[in-house]
């Protein structure tokens, strides 16, 4: 299968054809791959004296170098991204939670005989429901309802629908001419 040195193709078979290699980040000897090294350099790894690296597209999607409108900038050989992420409160849009419920208080219509609510039930008092500020027997206590924390900090899968295929790179073939 003829190709241009450095060309990458998707290949549906379970082997790399002759003169091609998997794009799996392998380190190659410069001495036996000088043409490919002159194209790739150490962009994808290696020490540049003895070895250089092939691109690693195992489990990755290729993205064009540069920056499209409204998109992030990508350098040649830059590896970025994750398969999952854990969302934080700052990732969520502003929103509110409403809470509701019923409060049941046992009560009697007779006059009470204790000045303390401890171990007692609510009983009648002549000024019990007055809204007069001067009535010192009215005891208003705010009801605080706290909505508990929800979630378990489990990562969210953000992997796009995918199919496993092999990326292969041409190791020996036509040397590309520069314009």
From TrEMBL:
SUPFAM superfamilies noted in UniProt: Receptor-binding domain of short tail fibre protein gp12
Superkingdom to which the source organism belongs: Bacteria
InterPro entries named among the record's database cross-references: Phage_tail_collar_dom, Phage_tail_collar_dom_sf
Residue ranges occupied by any Phage tail collar domain in the UniProt entry: 6-61
Protein name per the record: Tail fiber protein
Organism: Chryseobacterium turcicum
Taxonomic lineage of the native organism: Bacteria, Pseudomonadati, Bacteroidota, Flavobacteriia, Flavobacteriales
């Amino acid at each position: 299968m003829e190709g241009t040195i450095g060309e990458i193709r998707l290949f549906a078979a379970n082997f790399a054809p002759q003169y091609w290699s998997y794009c799996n980040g392998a380190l190659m000897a410069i001495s036996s791959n000088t043409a490919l090294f002159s194209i790739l350099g150490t962009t994808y790894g290696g020490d540049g004296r003895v070895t250089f690296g092939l691109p690693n597209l195992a489990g990755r999607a290729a993205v064009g170098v540069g920056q499209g409108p409204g998109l992030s900038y990508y350098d040649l050989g830059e590896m970025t991204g994750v398969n999952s992420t854990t969302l934080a409160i700052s990732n969520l849009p502003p929103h509110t939670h409403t809470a509701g419920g019923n409060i049941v208080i046992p009560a009697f219509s007779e006059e009470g005989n204790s000045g303390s609510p401890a171990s007692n039930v609510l009983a009648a008092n002549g000024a019990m429901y007055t809204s007069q500020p001067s009535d010192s027997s009215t005891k208003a206590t705010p009801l605080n309802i706290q909505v508990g924390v929800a979630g378990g900090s489990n990562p969210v899968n953000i992997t796009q629908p995918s199919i496993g295929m092999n990326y292969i790179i041409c190791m020996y073939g036509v040397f590309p001419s520069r314009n």
